[in-house]
């Protein structure tokens, strides 16, 4: 119990320092701002409530520093962003005198969080961070982020006549709505923790219901309409 209280105190001391560091890196993309980092940390805390063997200080650092280098979705170096962020995080953490024995664990958790990088998480901390970040792509906030990112990439909201991609390939680089089928609805099955899967399933259900309603309005097939 004493060790747990001591760790919580350490986390409370480090969170504002890591948050201030992250604030110096965030740009104009509100899908990857400080609010996103706060939500990822909140998600991680929910997951860790049932994953007691995760090191909270490692998870904290990875949650706040995983997007230090944010490469746009359509950039050819997108898959390298998490590795670059991990290297940058280690440099900055050393400057802050973060515990040296945790640096490798933080770096791996940052590298493995990325969907694009495809790096398998080896530690429980990396699994928690990956799940926590992906949870923010789901649910109501995930929908808002999806359309925001699509707008920044000049994507159409949806295909004019085939929004569900029944007779065409899905392409979320052209149509924002396609991102639900192409990636988001697949996330629950890819979650690394049981708590993450449970939360992701609930949030994905909202996405599916939203998509059904969106398509009804998009195609003019609402109740009482021809």
From TrEMBL:
CDD domains: HDc
InterPro entries referenced in this protein's UniProt entry, alphabetically: HD/PDEase_dom, HD_domain
The protein's name in its UniProt record: Hydrolase
Keywords: Hydrolase
An example Gene Ontology molecular-function term: hydrolase activity
Protein species of origin: Bordetella flabilis
Gene3D superfamilies registered for this protein in UniProt: 1.10.3210.50
Record's keyword annotation contains Hydrolase: yes
Top-level taxon of the source organism: Bacteria
Positions of the HD domain: 33-138
PANTHER family: HD_PDEASE DOMAIN-CONTAINING PROTEIN, SUPERFAMILY HYDROLASE, PUTATIVE (AFU_ORTHOLOGUE AFUA_1G03035)-RELATED
